Amino acid sequence: MQIKLLLACKDKRFASELCADLVDAAEGLITGAATDMPGVLRAAEITRPDVLVLEHMPGEEQASWNLLARFRNAGPGTRVLLLCDAYAEGTLIACLRHGASGCLRKSSAPLLQAKAVSHVFRGEIWFGRSELLKAVRSQIALRPVAPAVPVTGQEPLTAREREILDLIGHALSNKEIARELNISDKTVKTHLQHIYSKLQLSGRYKAFLSESAAAARQ
């Protein structure tokens, strides 16, 4: 199954060149279209992409968050990657909070960009792991997350679930967590599903951020 990609930048020519290089690197696994920022909503209606790569413009963050909200409200069909010049701490945290599936550097090689699109299409996230970990820890220290409203009968996390969250906080992938704990990848995914259900959150780093902030308040 081919992944339908829409790539939107302020400069449509740049978007077209970037999209062409990415599609070539994917060797038939991705089909792509390019547009400028004013035309992104219309283009998305026509192409109905699986993944949208959206240029993030420093100083124009609110426009990016508004577009993310529009796509989120339209349904879960399209996952969004922000295309950035660099990973800024504030951008990474805001990206998570507004529902994007990750950030991608403009300077990344086309093959790596194609890999990012494939991962996001499968429901995963794509960030520079060390940069994201630094941003999450900084955010916890400076602005702890407000406590969640208690849910009657909500189950506490088990020791194993807290152990997995701690390893997520060290930027380990599911496979690395499985090796560290001597369990299978499938077992890690099952534990994560239980964690998300108990915390009423979706996404590994949202869960880590929530639990770390709660621990800091105790």
Characterise this structure.
The structure is a single chain. This protein is of the alpha/beta class and 218 residues long. The chain folds into 2 domains: 133 residues, Response regulator (Rossmann fold); 70 residues, Orthogonal Bundle (Arc Repressor Mutant, subunit A), CATH 1.10.10. It is 55% helix and 13% strand. The chain has a 5-stranded parallel β-sheet with strand order 2-1-3-4-5, with helices on both faces. Helix 7 packs across helix 10. The chain is globular and about 50 Å long. The termini are far apart.
Q: Helical amount among residues, as a percent range?
A: 55-70%
Query: Structural class of the helix and strand makeup?
Result: alpha/beta
Shape: globular
User: Looking at CATH, which topology of the largest domain would you report?
Assistant: Rossmann fold
In terms of topology, how is this protein built?
Blueprint: E1 3-9, H1 12-26, E2 30-36, H2 40-47, E3 51-55, H3 61-74, E4 79-84, H4 89-97, E5 103-105, H5 110-121, H6 129-142, H7 159-169, H8 174-181, H9 185-199, H10 204-217
Parallel strand pairs: 1-2, 1-3, 3-4, 4-5
Helix pairs in contact: 1-5, 4-6, 6-10, 7-9, 7-10, 8-9
Task: Based on the model shown, name its key terms.
218 residues, alpha/beta, Rossmann fold, Arc Repressor Mutant, subunit A, 2 domains
Quick structural gist:
This protein has 218 residues and is of the alpha/beta class. The protein is built from 10 helices and 5 strands; from the N terminus they run βαβαβαβαβαααααα.
